[in-house]
Amino acid sequence: MAVSLMGPATGLTNSKLAMADTTAGRVVKGDTFYAGDKNIKTGTMPNRALSPRAGGQADTYLNDQFKNVGVSTDPTASYWLCKNGDGVKRFCIRPPYGAYALGADESVLGTVDSYCGFPANKLGNAFSSSVLSGVYFSSENGIGTVGSMTNNGNVFRTLNPGESMNIANGFHAGGGTVTARGLTANDVLGRIKVANANVGANVGSNRYILGIIYSDLRRYPGDGTSETGEWWNIGVSEDHHSFTGAGNGSGFITYMYVDV
Q1: d(CA 248, CA 95)
Q2: CA–CA separation, 238 vs 39, rounded Å?
Q3: Taking the model in full, what pTM does it have?
Q4: Is it the case that residue 111 has pLDDT exceeding 50?
Q5: DSSP string spanning 75-128?
Q6: Residue 83: beta bridge partners?
Q7: How far is Cα 208 from Cα 239, in angstroms, rounded to an integer?
Q8: Three-state DSSP class for 26?
Q9: Of 221, 197, 225, 222, nearest to 209 (Cα)?
């Protein structure tokens, strides 16, 4: 039930006014009110909703914090990134409408200063290790953090036959090249070796068979004589580590190989 503050003859009564317990610190600065007695009072709570030019005390209001820079705003967003007239990008936050705590005075709307927040993951999720060394960034993992990723720039390397190259951790500019030097006669001839084996033998994974130099396909009955063997085929396996063949006879082979 509404309570009337008007007495039958005296207007506002002290007993009715005593029911109003607000204080100047809870009323916007410049606004007048009655509370406690018949003396009109003026609010002292800073008006953060208006800029000083509009009679308020919004020292964080964009157009007063950054005077004469043409601040760009988005009336539909609670936070946004904008580039202003001075060419500077700023991350802006709009607090929702309402009253906010102003300090540690418990009589003034709260015990701590209020703040505006937004989801930290909106800043990204980068770590120092994923940002170039010396470059500053902000993400949900830190504000104004410096990157630590090594900048390898453009890497150039020429490899000799059989060599390998480790790829360094970090950033690569994308303009480098790694090439392999072409084989020369010296690369090949200096590594060719000769050995003996029989058809069906596996010479090992460390030997790469280049070809057969000589093959003895005769058959030896055991009486000191020899006769022509019967062979359908002899060859080298697809992986070049074994000799293949079908027939009968010695199957003795002299072959060339390189170590791998």
Answers
A1: 95
A2: 108
A3: 0.43
A4: no
A5: TT-SEEEEE-TTS-EEEEE-PPSS----SS-TTTT-SS-------GGGG----G
A6: 89
A7: 8
A8: helix
A9: 197
